[in-house]
């Protein structure tokens, strides 16, 4: 499909002869421009003598096409592409670095511009970067021997980082394409490469790009100018521009803060763990196995409440086993005997008889170690959620009061949530040797 660019008409009167010259330019799908000149002569002395001729029709590459060809092929031979493009690296060793145009025109982006060898070579003759060398046969090109590739990826990464600018704030819309971005940044000078940042999962445009400039000076100049005169995208959005090495430094600072925060959390967790380890209640742990699907913490607690003060139940609905933690040391054996005696030698929870035993020795020590580590981590996470006064503008004191009232309400009901927490009254929490999470 062709697109009309312009049409110019001029009329000249010479006696009885009127000459009208019309020049029409159209843009073709292959990005060339067709110029058609039509001459219409009319002799008014002889109304029957009308002469209409098409003087010429020429097709030439558009200036934009030349720029696009140069930019695309120079990208193929650029540092960033040549070091990572396995296909081209294999091709350059076949003929002293020369790449036939017949190979290059199989690449999709160049194909979308043109596959005509003469159009490509005529455009490349206008290149001023010095990165390309054209063969005298005009059917192949190579990277200029005076512009050797960096010796290593490390050297390349350093060079690229120093001349790369990170630009964010571009609209995250589907109509933002690489071609549009290339056209947009053209107004700020030539660029070696533009990489669109994508969302990891959806692969949608993330609204930011990495722009590689030809030199470190050009990259710095672009960023400094953006501070004086904000860079605006086509829709008026103001873009934030920063050098990649500055971005790296910010990333390092962010990582350092993250690591420091993690160290603080680990320190708090260790403090909680030390406290919990000191509160271990030995000889007060009972294991239950073969739990029914209908079993709940409340049903388990009902069996032990007559013989123990507010036992802590480690159980999640649907689990095949449970642990009962008592509040007084060395009471597990006595309490379990009383529970079994009350059930005529059996312990039935829900609709199923379960097996029960007192946990002792290394198994008990292992249980406390694992349980305390988990509870210490949970306490740290809970403290983080409810510290800092960031929830809805309420003060810490007011928020804690609301949380306490909420906990009291929960403890008056069945507590069989999937988070593994057990219900326990406030009075029991105040008892010596009892910890709550």
Overview of this protein structure:
The longest helix has 35 residues, at 244-278. Helix 1 crosses helix 6 and helix 10 (244-278) packs across helix 13 (361-385). Residues 389-437 have low confidence and may be disordered. The radius of gyration is 40 Å and the shape is elongated. It folds into 4 domains: 3-60, no CATH class; 64-143, Arc Repressor Mutant, subunit A (Orthogonal Bundle); 167-248, 2-Layer Sandwich (Alpha-Beta Plaits); 285-389 and 424-429, Alpha-Beta Plaits. The chain starts with a strand and ends in an 8-residue tail after the last helix. A 5-stranded antiparallel beta sheet has the order 9-10-8-12-11. Strands 1-2-3-4 form a 4-stranded antiparallel beta sheet. Strands 14-15-13-18 form a 4-stranded antiparallel beta sheet, with helices on one face. It has helices at 63-76, 79-82, 86-92, 101-104, 108-113, 117-124, 153-162, 178-186, 216-228, 244-278, 297-304, 332-342, 361-385, 396-411, 426-429, and strands at 3-14, 17-27, 32-43, 50-61, 99-100, 132-134, 140-143, 164-168, 193-198, 205-212, 231-232, 238-243, 285-289, 312-314, 321-325, 348-349, 352-353, 355-358. It is 40% helix and 24% strand. It has 15 helices and 18 strands. It is an alpha+beta fold.
């Amino acid at each position: 499909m062709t697109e009309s660019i312009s049409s110019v008409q001029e009329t000249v009167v010479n006696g009885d002869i009127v000459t009208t010259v019309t020049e029409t330019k159209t843009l073709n799908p292959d990005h060339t421009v067709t110029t058609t000149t039509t001459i219409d002569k009319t002799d008014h002395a002889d109304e029957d003598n009308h002469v209409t001729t098409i003087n010429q029709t020429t097709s030439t590459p558009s200036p934009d096409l030349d720029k696009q060809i140069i930019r695309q092929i120079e990208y193929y031979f650029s540092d960033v592409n040549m070091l990572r493009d396995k296909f081209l690296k294999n091709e350059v060793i076949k003929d002293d670095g020369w790449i036939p145009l017949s190979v290059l025109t199989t690449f999709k982006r160049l194909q979308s511009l043109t596959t005509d060898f003469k159009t490509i070579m005529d455009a490349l003759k206008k290149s001023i970067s010095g990165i390309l060398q054209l063969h005298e046969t005009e059917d192949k090109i190579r990277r200029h021997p005076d512009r050797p590739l960096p010796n290593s990826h490390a050297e390349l990464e350093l060079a690229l980082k120093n001349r790369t600018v990170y630009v964010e704030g571009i609209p995250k819309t589907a109509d933002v394409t690489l071609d549009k971005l290339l056209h947009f940044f053209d107004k700020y000078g030539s660029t070696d490469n533009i990489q669109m940042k994508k969302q990891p999962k959806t692969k949608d445009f993330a609204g930011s790009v990495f722009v590689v400039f030809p030199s470190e000076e050009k990259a710095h100049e672009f960023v400094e100018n953006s501070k004086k005169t904000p860079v605006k995208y086509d829709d008026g959005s103001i873009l934030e521009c920063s050098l990649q090495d500055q971005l790296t430094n910010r990333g390092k600072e962010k990582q350092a803060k993250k690591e420091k925060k993690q160290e603080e959390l680990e320190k708090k967790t260790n403090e909680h763990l030390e406290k919990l380890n000191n509160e271990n209640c030995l000889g007060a742990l009972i294991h239950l196995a073969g739990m029914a699907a209908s079993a709940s913490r409340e049903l388990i607690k009902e069996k032990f409440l007559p013989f123990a003060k507010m036992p802590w139940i480690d159980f999640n609905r649907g689990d095949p086993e449970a642990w009962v933690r008592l509040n007084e040391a060395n009471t597990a054996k006595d309490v379990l005997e009383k529970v079994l005696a009350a059930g005529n030698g059996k312990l039935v929870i829900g609709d199923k008889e379960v097996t029960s035993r007192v946990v002792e020795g290394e198994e008990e020590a292992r249980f406390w170690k694992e349980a305390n580590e988990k509870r210490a981590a949970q306490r740290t996470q809970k403290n983080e959620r409810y510290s800092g006064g960031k929830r809805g503008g309420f003060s810490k004191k007011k928020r804690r009061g609301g949380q306490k009232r909420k906990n009291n309400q929960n403890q008056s009901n069945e507590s069989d949530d999937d988070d593994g927490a057990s219900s326990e009254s406030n009075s029991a929490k105040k008892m010596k040797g009892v910890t709550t999470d």
